Amino acid sequence: SRSINLAVIPGDGIGQEVVAQGLKVLNAVLPQDVKLETKEYDFGARRYHASGETLTDADLADLKKHEAILLGAIGDPSVPSGVLERGFLLKLRFAFDHHVNLRPSRLLPGVATPLAGQPEIDFVVVREGTEGPYTGNGGTIRKGTPHEVATEVSVNTAFGVERVVRDAFARAQARPRKKLTLVHKNNVLAFAGHLWTNVFNQVATEFPDVTTDYIHVDAATIYLVTDPARFDVIVTDNLFGDIITDLAAAVSGGIGVAASGNINPSREFPSMFEPVHGSAPDIAGQGKADPTATVLSVALLLRHLGYDDEATRVEAAVSADLGERGDTTRTTDEIGDALAVRVAG
Ligand code: IPM
Ligand code: MN
């Protein structure tokens, strides 16, 4: 019989609450013959305060035994900004070579958007996940003086750019509209811009049926608001992708419904699925967090593991739930229960 060996990292703040709902829905949607085995990890602020530790080599070795990871959120105001994010989250993405950071945006019927009318929004951002300015390649001189100089070098390798661009082309080819937009800033960032544009144009020759487009990142933020229907698949670097996917979330139902997958397509390492939102310490422990983003991340997880029907059922349940949600205020648990009932039925 089949089984899924899942590592679970609830993390900080609302991460605990939303992951519980994600697991609830996962349990409800899986067929009887699929055995779900989970192991929970205590990563985040509590572990850090108790031991001073972030992610260790032993943790990585242990996590590596799993087929996938479900993560809630990492980050807490009791720890200086960046320590947990870099020590757990980014370390995981880098160690497990999660170079495809997949962030779909779909405006579902009945979901409020700050945009005028009800525009067609159905695109996916393929954000590079292991390079760019996230590599920690930089330094400071004359620190703390009025003449402090700080550099933060964006690292872009031909290998790294090509593999993520190729992945994005393949995803675009598999979608009805078959359109891929490169988002960068090649009018200013000449070196990285050249590499991205060049690789993009070269790989494009292997995908003649995919329509291609290029937009500077600043202009892309305009189109995401004024004409989001023009996007199908977007490929971009780590930092641009971070920024535009928050905007993409804001226009397509908000951060409460934005899902993501940190994917290692070779499956050499487990891929990790997480809501785009953070730990939201201001509402943690109150049962107010919307678990929808985590549940949609579970759908991405299911699809990654080859459970396509189950993934589709989870997405349909979320669609129906959002469509009928109206003005009712429900707790985290109530939304999770409603979704679990829908996927089971
Ligand atoms: C995200 C987050 C992270 C990122 C932070 C918490 C390090 O904003 O997943 O988008 O910048 O990638
Ligand atoms: Mn972000």
The distinct bound ligands, ions and cofactors come out as:
3-isopropylmalic acid, manganese (II) ion
From the coordinates shown, what is the CATH architecture of the largest domain? Answer: 3-Layer(aba) Sandwich
Largest sheet: 10 strands, mixed
Strand content: 15-25%
Low-confidence stretches: none
| Largest beta sheet: strand ordering | 2-1-3-12-11-4-5-10-8-9
User: Can you count the helices?
Assistant: 11
| SSE string, helices as H and strands as E | EHEHHEHEEEEHEHEHEHEEHHH
CATH superfamily membership of the largest domain, which one?
Isopropylmalate Dehydrogenase
Distance between the termini: 23 Å
Number of domains: 2
EC number: 1.1.1.85
Function: Catalyzes the oxidation of 3-carboxy-2-hydroxy-4-methylpentanoate (3-isopropylmalate) to 3-carboxy-4-methyl-2-oxopentanoate. The product decarboxylates to 4-methyl-2 oxopentanoate.
Binding site for Mg(2+): 218, 242, 246
Binding site for substrate: 93, 103, 127, 218
Furnish the topology, listing elements before pairings.
Layout: E1 3-11, H1 15-29, E2 35-40, H2 45-51, H3 57-63, E3 68-73, H4 83-95, E4 100-106, E5 122-128, E6 138-141, E7 149-152, H5 158-173, E8 179-184, H6 190-204, E9 211-216, H7 217-226, E10 233-236, H8 238-251, E11 259-263, E12 271-275, H9 292-304, H10 308-325, H11 332-344
Parallel strand pairs: 1-2, 1-3, 3-12, 5-10, 8-9, 8-10
Antiparallel strand pairs: 4-5, 4-11, 6-7, 11-12
Helix pairs in contact: 1-9, 1-11, 5-6, 7-8, 9-10, 10-11
The protein binds 3-isopropylmalic acid and manganese (II) ion (MN).
Manganese (II) ion binds next to helix 8.
